[in-house]
UniProtKB/TrEMBL annotation:
This is Phosphoribosylglycinamide formyltransferase. InterPro entries: Formyl_transf_N, Formyl_transf_N_sf, GART, GART_AS. PANTHER family: PHOSPHORIBOSYLGLYCINAMIDE FORMYLTRANSFERASE. The keyword Ion transport does not apply. It comes from Pseudooceanicola antarcticus. GO terms for molecular function: phosphoribosylglycinamide formyltransferase activity. The record marks D150 as: Raises pKa of active site His. Its EC number is 2.1.2.2. Keywords: Purine biosynthesis, Transferase. One of its GO terms (cellular component) is cytosol. One of its GO terms (biological process) is 'de novo' IMP biosynthetic process. Catalyzes the transfer of a formyl group from 10-formyltetrahydrofolate to 5-phospho-ribosyl-glycinamide (GAR), producing 5-phospho-ribosyl-N-formylglycinamide (FGAR) and tetrahydrofolate. SUPFAM superfamilies: Formyltransferase (SSF53328). N(1)-(5-phospho-beta-D-ribosyl)glycinamide binds at G17, S18, N19.
Length: 194
């Protein structure tokens, strides 16, 4: 059941969480959603501290003690997430592969941002791969999460040029600046339609 009033948004991060910060900052005023929880697979993730500073509750479930038992790790994630009754789950630099069981649990309400123009460059090292291929443009994609990795209906993309002497790092920075605009815009649209 979808919440009456503002949609409740949980966000999962693994790293610094710059996309998470932009999402949280966007959900104010007449925005149709509010951030209710930020979680991570790493207690030391910089994103957790940044969320706390913004007054958003956080949790972490370290994936390492679970070893290969993804189901048990995900059961713990779900336990924390569902206690906050999220209507929407945003992956924002969450670097664990999720099983179909987890994905089905949040079917139709889970979004991801990926740093490439999907369907190009699923997986890791997207910027290096775009440079190696000699692409003249790169970008990012917000999509609904389905059981296939970096697949699912595309909600929006943003493009940037590749410039001479780009390195994976300079290209990543140019793409990240677009991610910070694209993800909040797509979340807003998604929350309005839910
Ligand atoms: C972002 O570039 C995001 O697109 C990417 O990780 C970075 C996280 O940065 N996500 C993936 O590669 C997912 N496969 P952030 O922690 O500063 O938002």
């Amino acid at each position: 059941m979808v919440s009456n009033g503002p949609k409740r948004v949980a966000i999962l991060v693994s790293g610094g969480g710059s996309n998470m910060v932009k999402l949280v900052e966007s959900m104010t005023g007449d925005h149709p959603a509010r951030a209710v929880l930020v979680g991570s697979n790493d207690h030391g993730a910089g994103g957790l501290k940044r969320a706390e500073e913004m007054g958003v509750p956080t949790f972490a479930v370290d994936h390492r003690p679970f070893g290969k038992d993804r189901a048990a790790f995900e059961a713990e994630l779900i336990r924390h997430l569902d206690a906050a009754r999220p209507d929407i789950l945003c992956l924002a630099g969450f670097m664990r592969i999720l099983t179909p069981t987890f994905i089905n649990h949040y079917a139709g309400r889970m979004l991801n941002i990926h740093p490439s123009l999907l369907p190009k460059y699923k997986g890791l090292h997207t910027h290096a791969r775009a440079l190696e291929a000699g692409d003249s443009e790169a970008g990012c994609t917000v999509h609904e999460v389905t059981a296939e990795l970096d697949d699912g209906p595309i909600l929006g993309q943003a493009r940037v040029p590749v410039v001479p002497d780009d390195t994976p790092e300079t290209l990543a920075a140019r793409v990240l600046a677009e991610e910070h605009k694209l993800y909040p815009a797509m979340l807003r649209k998604f929350a309005e339609a839910l």
